[in-house]
Specification:
50% helix; globular; 8% strand; two-stranded antiparallel sheet; mainly alpha; two-stranded antiparallel ribbon
Length: 155
């Protein structure tokens, strides 16, 4: 299976090899590979987004769908290991994952398990399609903080 994931990641194919392929490849055993591919600049950006969505699915499935406690602990440990990664998107995922694991009542299927569409359900999520993006005068409702002209070099 790992060969198939790598094969697709670096191919020019944009379609999944088969329906629900993202569900099929998302597993605690493939999680390190999914993490690696989600931040690999040699992987097409749209595919990196797919792999990142798989990481959200991994956590959402463990918390919201309710597998056994052992599985949840394995996922929590993986998230903890991933917390050392400095990639912006991985840090967002780690933070949200810890929050969900500690507060499972916050589980929202659309935000965690709805495939690549999950990113449209996070109010603060900005998926960058260019290597450098300037965020100017970004205001978050209910917060007094303002971000002025910060250049993010992510992905």
């Amino acid at each position: 299976m790992i060969y198939d994931i790598n094969d697709w990641a670096f191919s020019k194919d944009t379609q999944f090899p088969h329906q629900d392929w993202d569900l099929f490849i998302t597993d605690i055993n493939t999680a390190p590979l999914l993490l690696s591919l989600s931040i690999n600049p040699k992987v097409a950006k749209d595919k990196r987004k797919v792999f990142l969505a798989c990481l959200y699915l991994l956590v959402g499935d463990a918390v919201g769908i309710g597998k056994d406690r052992t599985h949840l602990e394995e996922v929590r440990l993986f998230v903890e290991q991933a917390s050392s990664n400095r990639n912006y998107y991985i840090q967002q995922w780690v933070s949200r994952s810890f929050q969900l694991i500690q507060n499972p009542e916050l589980f929202d299927y659309k935000k965690w398990c709805d495939g690549i569409d999950i990113f449209s359900f996070w109010e603060d999520y900005v998926f960058l399609y260019s290597r450098n993006v300037v965020l100017s005068s970004l205001y978050k409702t209910g917060l007094s903080c303002k971000i002025n002209s910060i250049v993010l070099n992510i992905l």
